[in-house]
Specification:
single chain; alpha+beta; Beta Polymerase, domain 2; 4-stranded mixed β-sheet; two-stranded antiparallel sheet
């Protein structure tokens, strides 16, 4: 494991442990009815000193009658904000716009429907599976993960021996493409400073979001190759790993020896990205205002994408994986 990954994991765990110690009252508020889960750099276990908290709330109950009452939701959010301030985390992005309470029924009920995107349940559901960890309410968190996975495995009983998780993989690919489309749509007109900020955001997107999405696909493809099927238990195991841990799993499998070099190259490139984005925002923006430096950075991002492509090819291109074929056609 690259040293920066090891240190980031340890530091992320330490800081979250300190934050949890301040949330006993919040944990009592949500006990048996809700959970709060982290996504973003803390969910991936790679936070820097400048990382903020990306939080979602998931509750039992129906959309119109969540188990977490409206007043207790307000109390919970206040406690989360106060604890984050106490531990000097940056302010929640967009003035707390994304600190939203969804019921698990909502996360499942909008699956495949037009409102899935507009309600942001699509992103909340996929990040729950791909880069989350429980902050408080572990029991409800595990239940939410299990129920969401079950909704993607509806046909499993009829295809136990050769189940292909196409529904989930298609949503993961759609999530990645949605991130890309949203970035492009917001970059049409901007001044120099705004362009530098957009470049910086795109640079992060082409690393962290790319790895979040495609590490999940790599893992599911690897399981499919090894077992000829993918069970719900396999998917639950995937959610318990960070994106980089999924790559480390591939590196431990002798069957995927042809992809081990690509895994190491991906982890090395990603470690370099973590070092660069661990700098103060002003320093990174200065680099992106320089066209030549920006081109070098984006070449690095392209290299990461190429190595991930090579890894997918190494794992699935022998013609024996139905899932690999589904990734192409």
């Amino acid at each position: 494991m690259p040293p920066i990954l090891e240190s980031r994991r340890a530091d992320s765990a330490r800081r979250l442990g300190e934050l949890k110690a301040e949330l006993d009252d919040a944990a009592r508020l949500v006990h048996g009815c809700s959970c709060v889960y982290l996504t973003g750099s803390f969910g991936r276990g790679e936070a820097s000193p400048h990382s903020d908290l990306d939080l979602f709330i998931a509750s039992r109950g129906a959309k119109d009658s969540p188990a977490l009452s409206r007043l207790n939701e307000i109390r919970l959010k206040a406690k989360l904000i106060e604890a984050a301030q106490e531990h000097k985390f940056p302010e929640f992005s967009k003035d707390g716009q994304f600190l939203t309470n969804y019921t698990v029924d909502e996360l499942i009920g909008t699956l495949g429907k037009p409102e899935d995107d507009s309600n942001n349940t699509f992103t909340a559901r996929l990040l729950l599976l791909l880069e989350s960890r429980s902050l408080i309410g572990e029991e409800v968190y595990k239940e939410a993960v299990g129920q969401v996975i079950e909704s993607y495995w509806r046909d499993y009983e009829r295809h136990k021996d050769d189940f292909v998780p196409s529904f989930l993989v298609n949503d993961i690919l759609r999530l990645w493409r949605t991130f890309c489309v949203n970035y492009e749509a917001r970059t049409k007109s901007a001044d120099e400073i705004q362009r530098a900020k957009r470049r910086s955001k795109n640079f992060r997107l082409k690393h962290s979001r790319l790895l979040t999405c495609y590490s999940g696909i790599v893992y599911l493809l690897g399981v499919s190759v090894l077992k000829k099927t993918v069970s719900q238990e396999d998917a639950v195991a995937m959610t318990g790993m960070t994106p980089t841990e999924r790559l480390e799993w591939v590196a431990r499998e002798k069957r995927f020896a042809a992809g081990h070099k690509s895994v190491q190259q991906i982890l090395d490139l990603y470690s370099k990205f973590l070092e660069q984005t661990g700098e103060a925002e002003e320093k990174l923006l200065t680099r992106f205002r320089d066209t030549n430096q920006a081109q070098i950075l984006f070449q690095q991002a392209d290299d990461l994408g190429n190595r991930i492509y090579e890894l997918l090819f190494a794992i699935g291109s022998d013609g024996k994986s139905t899932l690999y074929r589904h990734l192409v056609v």
